[in-house]
Amino acid sequence: MLLSSLNPHAVAQGADIPDAVTIADTTFSRSDLIGAATSVAERVARADRVAILAAPTPTTVLAVIGCLIAGVTAVPVPPDSGTAELAHILRDSGAQAWLGVAPGECGVELPVIPVRLHARSWHSYPEPAPEAAAFVLYTSGTTGPPKGVVLRRSAIMAGLDALAEAWAWTANDVLVHGLPLFHVHGLILGLLGPLRVGSPLVHTGKPTPQAYARAGGSMYFGVPTVWSRIAEDPESARALSSARLLVSGSAPLPVPVFERIAELTGHAPVERYGMSETMITVSTRADGERRPGWVGVPVAGVATRLRDEHGGDVAHDGESIGGLQVRGPMLFDGYLGRAEATADVWTEDGWFKTGDVAAIDADGFHRIVGRESTDLIKSGGYRIGAGEVETALLGHPQVAEVAVIGAPDPDLGQRVVAFVVLRPAADVAPEQLIEHVATQLSVHKRPREVIVVDELPRNAMGKVQKKRLGRAAQ
Q1: Cβ atoms within 10 A of the Cβ of 304, count?
Q2: DSSP letters of 392-445?
Q3: For position 83, what pLDDT does the model report?
Q4: Residue-level pLDDT at 434
Q5: What confidence tier does 12 reach under pLDDT thresholds 50, 70, 90?
Q6: How does strand 245-248 pair with strand 270-275?
Q7: Nearest to 325 by CA among 358, 294, 370
Q8: Cα–Cα distance for residue pair 65/34, rounded to 1 Å
Q9: What is the DSSP letter of 461?
C-alpha cells in the first residue's frame, strides 16, 4: 500500500493519529484524511488524469490523496504558472478536469471537480496496480517546453522506502517544511513520505526561519535559500537544535551555509541528490559522514557510474569529473507522449543519463559539479566544473551568492564567468575575487570575469537559471 499509514483498518481498530497533517492552520487526523480523501476519490474515480493547482492548502492535500486512493493520475500544476505554461501543461498532459480549484485564466477550458474539506466517505477502494501512473510531474522547462515525467506507484514506494532506511525515518518523527507541493521535494518526499512512514507533517505555508523555529519537528526539509535565511537568523537556527535531521536538497548547499547551520544547530545538514525523473538516488545517511559540498552515497537499490564524453569510464578518485548515470527501482517510466526524448536519456545498457556532472571518491561519496549543458566548462583545453569555482568564491567572507557559467570565447572556447551577489556593505573588487579563486584552485580555473549583481535569477524551487545568465554574459 503506497500510503501505508492511511490504512482504514488501523483507524477501525482505534489507532488514529490526531495530527497526521497540519497545513494552512488546518489539522487533519488520520481518520479525517481517509474520510475526506475517500470522498474526493468518489468524485474523481471515473477520470483517467486530472490537474491539481498545487498551492500549499488543505484542498491540495486532499486532492492528491484522493487521486492516489482512486488510482487516478494527478498532474500537479505550479500555482504561479503563466498562461502559456498552464495551457501547455493542460494540453500536453491530457488532463480531463481541474480537481479542487482552477486558475482564473489558463487558455484551456476544463470542468472543475470540487474538493469539500468537511465531506466524508468510508467507501473502500482496491489498491491500484503498482505499475499504475501516480503522477505526471512537469520539468522546469529550461531546455524547451516542460516535459511530463511519468512516475508509477511502485517507483514512489521504492524511493520513499530507500530514504526511510537512509535517514532512519520512522513514525516517531515529525516532519516540518514549507516547500511547494508540485515537485518531488515538497510533494513526494514532503507529503507522501510522512503518509507512508506514519510520521506527522507540519507544512508551514512559507518556509520562513520563524515558522520553522515554532514548528517543533524532528526532521526539517529545505532548499539552500531556506537554509541560508535560517543561517542568518541565529535565534531561529538555534531553535532547531532539538531536531534529529536537517535535510537540504533541490540545489547545492553552499559550504559556508552548511558550516554555519552546523555551528548554530549542532547538526551537520543531510544533503541528497535527485531529480524529477529519478527521485532521490544519492544521499548522506543519518548514521554516516556528512561532508560539506558532497551529497553522499547511493541509497538502497541504486547504482551509479561516471562516463566521459566518449562513453569511457571516469576514475572514482574524488577529482575526475564525468557525466553521472544512475539506475534503480525509483526511476521514471518516461516522458509523457515523447518516445524520442525518453530514448535519448537512456543508454543502450539501461542506465539513465542524468545530464549532471559529478565526481565520486574511492568511498563512493558523490560531489555534484552541475549540469553538463551549463556547468561543464571547457576552457583552453581544460574541463572545469562550475561548482568547484562557486564553492571557492562562496568561501570569501564578502560573497553571499554566486553562479558560475562558461561564456563563449574566441580564444579559449569558453571563459569562466562568475555572477556574484555581495553581502551588505561589502567592499571587494572583482579582481580581488578572481585572485581569491586563483589561490584556492588551479590558476586555469579562475574566473576571467566577475560580474556583481543584486540577485540571481531562480525558479520556484530555488535553482539558479543559468541559461538567463548565459545570455547576459554574451
Answers
A1: 21
A2: HHHTSTTEEEEEEEEEEETTTEEEEEEEEEEPTT----HHHHHHHHHHHS-GGG
A3: 82
A4: 94
A5: low
A6: parallel
A7: 358
A8: 8
A9: T
Q: Does residue 48 sit in helix, strand or coil?
A: coil
Q: How confident is the model at residue 300 (pLDDT cuts 50, 70, 90)?
A: very high
Orientation of helix 30-44 relative to helix 58-70, angle to 10°? 60
Range name among 43-57, 209-223, 328-342, 372-386 with the lowest pLDDT average: 372-386
3 state DSSP class of 3: coil
Task: Pinpoint the residues of the chain covered by CATH 3.30.300.30.
Answer: 380-473
Q: State residue 348's pLDDT score.
A: 94
Three cell numbers, residue 264: 548554530
More confident: 230 or 13: 230
Q: Delimit the CATH 3.40.50.12780 region(s) of the chain.
A: 8-190
**Residue 410, φ and ψ in degrees, nearest 5:** -65, -25
Three-state DSSP class for 5? Answer: coil
Question: From CA 72, how far away is CA 306, in angstroms rounded?
Answer: 37
Encode 271-310 in three state secondary structure: EEEEECCCEEEEECCCCCCCCCCCCEEECCCCEEEEECCC
Using CA atoms, how far residue 78 sits from 53, 138, 180, 341, in Å, is: 6, 9, 8, 23
Report d(CA 238, CA 264) in Å as an integer: 6
Q: Is the pLDDT of residue 347 over 70?
A: yes
- Which has more confidence, 179 or 413? 179
CATH of span 8-190: 3.40.50.12780
- Reading the block at residue 263, the C-alpha cell is 555551528
DSSP 62-79: HHHHHHHHHTPEEEEE-T
What is the rounded CA–CA span in Å between residue 245 and residue 166?
Answer: 11
Whether the per-residue pLDDT at 107 is higher than 80: the answer is no
- At residue 470, the 3 state secondary structure works out as helix
| pTM listed for this prediction | 0.86
| Range with the poorest average pLDDT among 109-113, 195-199, 258-262, 469-473 | 469-473
Query: DSSP readout, 243-259?
Result: -SEEEE-SSPPPHHHHH
Length of the chain: 474
> Cα-flanking dihedrals φ and ψ of residue 21, to 5°?
-140, 125
Secondary-structure class of domain 380-473 per CATH:
alpha beta
Burial class from Cβ neighbours inside 10 Å (0-12, 13-18, 19+) for residue 124 reads exposed
Q: If you average pLDDT over every residue of the chain, what do you get? A: 91
